Amino acid sequence: MFRRLLPAALLTSAALCVVVAVAGPLAPPAGPPAPTHKTLADVEPRTPIASLPLTISQPGSYYLTRDLSVAAGNAILVTAPDVTIDLNGFTIRNTGLADRGVFANADALRLRVRNGSIRDFRFQGILAQARSASIDRVRVTVVDVNGGGIELRGDHGVILACTATGSAPTPLGVGLEARGEASSIRSSSAVGFSINVTGGKGSLIARCRTSGGVTGILASTGSRIVDSASFRNAGSGFSIGPSGAVDGCIARQNTTGFSALNTSSTFDNCTARGNTANGFYISAAGVSACVSYDNADNGLESFSGSTISRCVVSANGSYGIRLAGFSTATFNLCDGNVGDGIALLGAGNRVHDNTLTDNRYGLDASASNNLFSRNVASGNTTGQFFVGQPQTNGPVVTAAGSITTPSPFANFQY
User: Fold this and answer.
1) Which of 102, 211, 347, 384 could disulfide-link 126, Cβ–Cβ 3.0 to 4.6 Å?
2) Rounded (to 5) percent helix, strand, coil in the chain
């Protein structure tokens, strides 16, 4: 057995000798240690911008070294892809008749501009024509009536944490615009433009704030507007295109709070308050779990083909819910409206399971050929139910005391 183990022991000893033979010295080299990290210039080579105007025709990273101004043309023209411009907290300003702060042509794919201010240009602070542009933490101020803030024309554009401020009394420009498909505008604000914020087909507008313009937020086909607010605009606070969705938004003191005409769009968990016309002005849309309060005209008006459910509609200056035809209103509370709680002014509407209190009429069925059932009305000043034309409806129970009607479709007044 000793003879069998001896070769293995010799091999192990030889291996240890080899390891010892190839190991380096344990003592550190003489002299101070030298740096081994890469500098910022090694990681991201950057080119300073010290004067304007400037044409950038090579990819790379560029940065401002101080506040700069220009009196004509474009302050920075970008003609190459993969350019990053870091404003570095400084300002680019028009001091004459300059057109734009940054103009990127159709070759300038994947432009990025960040962290600074652009002021007083005639047309746009930033105009990017190519796709995949990204603008973040940029503040644009506009004084010209035709001036705009940030405009991205290519698909997949991103505007993040930006602001645009207009000062013209009758603005014609756009504040923040990402018109390409699948673009987004997030955590941004715009004040004082013809359209404050607008997105193209399939866009996302989230956590934005607008005020003092004509239209607050406008989004195209298939877009989503989420967790945003629009105040004191001369037109609509929110306007959504076909197959769009608006969720968790607030519209106050605009002319119309929310609008969507012939769109198949939806509104969920939204609030319209204190608007000078309608809270919601829709056609072929869905409204669910929304509040429409203290608007000067109707709380919610539908032309045709809409569904309104589980909403609170109160203290509006005219009708609570006004249905022109072929719409459905279910499980809503209509309270304290100057006009009727629900007014049926066209045919083909279906109204059931609503609570109607302290309006003029609870339910006004002035037009014929509607269906209503299981509604409850109380305290309305002129009457609980007005049926002016032939309808299909459950019986209206008026007697006090125990409920004895056998109909599951009965309406109740008390």
Assistant:
1) 102
2) 5, 45, 50
